[in-house]
Write a structure and sequence with these properties.
The protein is about 60% helix and about 20% strand. It is built from ten helices and six strands. The chain has a six-stranded antiparallel sheet with strand order 1-2-3-4-5-6, with no helix packed on it. Helix 1 packs antiparallel against helix 2, helix 2 runs antiparallel to helix 5 and helix 5 runs antiparallel to helix 7.
Length: about 350
């Protein structure tokens, strides 16, 4: 029963979080598509890949909120009192919760180490391909479009269904020379040596602004080769394959490996904290301790990021960056358990485990 409630709540919370996060990220991708930096054909692929990444990244917080909400409802409805009267204690509750949490945490190891980097690398490839072939993509009728940092300016009055452009104005700047082309129509054409734009029935004025030396040419057909851009992509460490990270002494790789392991560790530790944190007064509602939960997760997430930056800058040793925040979260969970059941009970359990 608890596992079913947790699964339903987890899916609902994760869906809401992923939709919000992916929507915000996708707006930036749409801006790039409007500017011609991303092909329209790849938008759905990028959306799907970003959804995968966000689902993996925010699994711990979704699981944390799900446990808080389900346990809080059980406290409100006096179901916890019924479990206690039947002889069930903290061990019974944790066994029920971790029937779902533990398999998901094990699954998230593979997801964070291999699936998420693969999705990130695919997004980078699609974005890079779009930027490398961005010239003349995004040209729209009735507006000026700039490319190549303003060296190429297009204006098209009309674009027909067969992608042919009509009444075309082009300003092409090369060093100090400027060429102005006016043509009745233009079309893109792929040739063996590259992509060309073919102008038909027009005039070209070429020269240097401020001088009287101009060349005026009229043409029936005039072809201009579109230079392909060669850009160097910045290294996205979240897209690095796990095989490259294992055994590396480079602090950047060590910190990235710790970030990936923080997802399954965070899922288990946050769920451990959520069980005692969910204890509320029956009159305070299901969301009585939700504010404390947000505060704990916000602090935990920021400390994880800060510790990773400290590991990269070698401010702290790598082992402290990997264990420090997680040990702190474990201590917080132990304190909440002691507050709920008493320090004597907690010491007895610890001594029983040790012996």
């Amino acid at each position: 029963m608890i596992v079913q409630d947790l699964m339903k709540t987890l899916l609902s919370v994760l869906t809401v979080i992923v939709v919000i996060i992916v929507s915000r990220k996708f707006i930036r991708v749409l801006d790039d598509a409007i500017a011609g930096q991303v092909s329209n054909e790849t938008l759905l692929s990028i959306l799907g890949l970003k959804t995968i990444v966000a689902s993996i990244e925010f699994l711990p917080v979704a699981l944390f909120m799900a446990v808080l909400m389900v346990m809080g409802r059980m406290y409100r409805d006096q179901e916890m009192a019924a479990v206690a009267s039947a002889g069930g204690g903290a061990g019974t509750i944790y066994r029920a919760v971790f029937l779902l949490v533990f398999p998901l945490s094990v699954l998230s190891v593979g997801l964070s180490l291999y699936v998420s980097p693969w999705a990130e690398s695919q997004v980078d490839k699609l974005m890079q391909q779009g930027q490398d072939s961005a010239d003349l993509r995004g040209v729209a009728a009735g507006k000026f479009s700039e490319y190549s940092q303003g060296d190429l300016v297009f204006y098209v009055e009309k674009i027909s269904d067969d992608k042919k452009m009509h009444n075309v104005f082009v300003q092409n700047r090369h060093n100090t020379n400027v060429a102005i082309i006016n043509a009745e129509s233009a079309r893109l054409k792929d040739l063996p040596d590259g992509k060309y734009i073919i102008f038909e029935n027009g005039e070209q004025v070429q020269g240097q602004p401020g001088t009287l030396n101009y060349v005026i040419e009229q043409f029936v057909e005039y072809a201009v080769r579109i230079e392909e851009k060669v850009s160097v992509a910045a290294v996205n460490r979240q897209a690095l394959p796990a095989d490259l990270l294992w055994g590396s002494d480079l602090m950047l790789y060590v910190a990235e490996l710790q970030r990936r392991f923080s997802i399954p560790l965070g899922a288990m530790l946050l769920s451990f904290v959520a069980v005692p944190l969910a204890q509320i007064s029956p009159r305070s509602g299901v969301y009585g301790n939700m504010f404390a939960g947000f505060l704990i997760y916000f602090s935990y997430g920021n400390l994880v990021r800060v510790s990773q930056s400290w590991v990269m800058s070698e401010t702290i040793p790598a082992w402290l960056g990997g264990l420090g925040v997680n040990v702190l979260l474990l201590l917080i969970g132990s304190f909440l358990l002691a507050r709920l059941y008493g320090w004597q009970w907690l010491l007895m359990k610890v001594r029983g485990k040790v012996s």
